[in-house]
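Check out a protein:
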Amino acid sequence: MNTQPINPSDGGYKGYHNYYTPDEFFRHEKDEGALFLRDGQRAARVSEDFILGLHSGLDEDVGDASNLIMYKCGVEWGLQDMKRFNNRMRHEFGGGKLDIWQMDPRFVFETWWWPLTVEGWGGWTLDLSFRKRGITFIEIRNSAVARSMQRVGKPVCHLYAGMFAGVMSYFEKIDRQSIEVQCYSMGNDCCKFMVGPEKQVNAAEFWHQEGASADEIRGNFE
C-alpha cells in the first residue's frame, strides 16, 4: 500500500497525475488501521453486502422515502467532493491559480470520475452535446449499487443520480436535478442518467413513467 507522505501545501497531488490501482490512490495508516485518500480525506472500504444492507434497511424503515434519502445523500456528496476536487485540480494542474471553471470541461469531468472508477463505482460515458441547454447524459457500467441489488425491476441508483446533480450544480453554479432513466436492475446492460434544469428533468421523469426508453428520452431533447 502506498505510504508516500502527503504535502498539505499541494494537496498531495502535485506532480502525481495518474491513478490506475487502489495502491496508488489510497494511503493506509497501518498504526491506526485507517484508510485515506491522497489529500488526507478519510475513506472506507465496503462490500456489496454492505450496500445491499444499507438500501434494504432504509427501504424497510421508510419505504419509498429511502429513494429521496439516498438522492439527497448523493447531492451532498457531489457538492462536497467537487469542492475538494477543485482544490486538488488547482494544485495538480492549475499551478495553484487556475480553478476548474478555467479548464476544459471534459478534461475536468474525466479527471474527476477516474478515481471513482478505481474505487469501484464503475466506468462512465459522458455526453456533453446538450451542455448549452444545461443538460448532460451519463452512462454507467458496473454500478456498485445496481450490481449489489441485482435485478429488482426498478431504478436503484438514486445515490448516483444525486451525486451527478450535486456535481453539475457546483460546476455550473446553478441548481441541477438528475434522474436515472435506465438501470441495470431493470434488466438493462448499463445505467443511464439525465442531469439538467428541474423542468426538463421533470419532463424526462414523466416520459420514463410512461414507458419511454432512455434513447427516446434523449431524442426528445434533440
